[in-house]
């Protein structure tokens, strides 16, 4: 005679893992989409302000010494560009840097070396 267990296993069903994973993925994509949608960089007479999601930063023109850069990521493949604080020489990465914004900053605080500028706007 073959008997079957009368109680279910305490393991969760695969469907539950699929639902939880889908919800987590949806929330992550929604958050990142919102951060991208709220990204702004403003240039005015007082200085430079930028926002990405809940992160707000600003520097006055007299606090900025130059436009700087660094390479990040594996093998230095990601180029990070932003204003450099005059006293600390700290690079503040900008969330976006379209060509039009770069041209305004280049006139105001100076541009990047030609090789880096070419790398930034290649293709």
How is the topology of this model organized?
Blueprint: H1 14-37, E1 40-43, E2 47-52, E3 55-60, E4 64-72, E5 78-85, H2 99-109, H3 114-120
Q: Can you tell me the residue ranges where pLDDT is under 50 for at least 5 consecutive residues? A: none
For the sheet with most strands, the description reads: 3 strands, antiparallel
User: Helix fraction?
Assistant: 25-40%
Strand percentage:
25-35%
Distance between the termini: 73 Å
What is the CA-based Rg, rounded? 24 Å
The neighbouring-strand order within the major sheet is 1-2-3
Order of helices and strands: HEEEEEHH
- Total separate domains: 1
Helix and strand composition category: alpha+beta
Strand runs, count: 5
Morphology: elongated
Mean pLDDT: 87
Count of helical regions = 3
Summary keywords:
elongated; three-stranded antiparallel beta sheet; single chain; two-stranded antiparallel ribbon; 34% helix; 123 residues; alpha+beta
Describe the structure.
With 123 residues, the chain is α+β, with helices and mostly antiparallel strands. The protein has one domain (34-120). It has helices at residues 14-37, 99-109, 114-120, and strands spanning 40-43, 47-52, 55-60, 64-72, 78-85. The chain has a 3-stranded antiparallel beta sheet. The chain has a two-stranded antiparallel ribbon with strand order 4-5. A hairpin with a 5-residue loop joins β4 and β5. The longest helix is centred in the N-terminal third of the chain and has 24 residues, at 14-37. The radius of gyration is 24 Å and the shape is elongated. The chain starts with 13 loop residues before the first helix and ends with a helix.
């Amino acid at each position: 005679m073959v008997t079957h267990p009368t109680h279910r296993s305490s393991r969760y069903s695969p469907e539950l893992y699929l639902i939880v994973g889908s919800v987590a993925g949806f929330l992550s994509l929604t958050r990142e989409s919102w951060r991208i949608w709220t990204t702004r960089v403003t240039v005015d007479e007082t200085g430079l302000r930028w926002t990405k999601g809940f992160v707000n930063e600003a520097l006055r023109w007299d606090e900025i010494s130059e436009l700087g850069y660094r390479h990040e990521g594996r093998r230095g493949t990601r180029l990070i560009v932003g204003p450099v604080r005059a006293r600390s020489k700290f690079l503040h990465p900008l969330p976006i840097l379209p060509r039009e914004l770069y041209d305004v900053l280049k006139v105001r605080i100076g541009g990047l070396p030609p090789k880096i500028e070419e790398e930034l706007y290649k293709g």
